[in-house]
Design goal:
Layout lengths: L13 H25 L5 H20 L3 E2 L4 E2 L1 H26 L3
Length: about 100
């Protein structure tokens, strides 16, 4: 088999993966909310990962992992949606980090 055309890796259950990501994001956001309200501090890494994980997890739960059988790869609109979800999630994370640091 030509290495250029070998099948891309597939997840066995992409919606379960999305649920796991969403759960991790919710836990990280809840931890940061609790810490910032009770103690007046926050965790920067959790603030960066939390919103991204929530948004990307919701996207994965909604669409799963549609596959193009002719090319044996994910469909193009899925890759575009993954990229958009990642950019929006990271933008929200960076905006929240700037808000917590008083950059705005």
């Amino acid at each position: 088999m030509n290495p250029l055309f070998r099948p891309a890796p597939r997840l066995k259950n992409p919606r379960l993966f999305g649920l796991l990501l969403l759960g991790c994001g919710v836990v990280l956001n809840a931890l940061n909310a609790y810490e910032s309200i009770q103690r007046g501090k926050y965790y920067a890494v959790a603030l960066l990962i939390g919103p991204f994980a929530c948004l990307f997890g919701l996207w994965r739960i909604a669409i799963g992992q549609p596959w193009n059988e002719t090319t044996n790869r994910m469909r193009g609109w899925v890759l575009i949606g993954d990229s958009v979800a990642a950019v929006i999630g990271l933008s929200i994370s960076i905006a929240l980090l700037g808000l917590f640091n008083g950059w705005w």
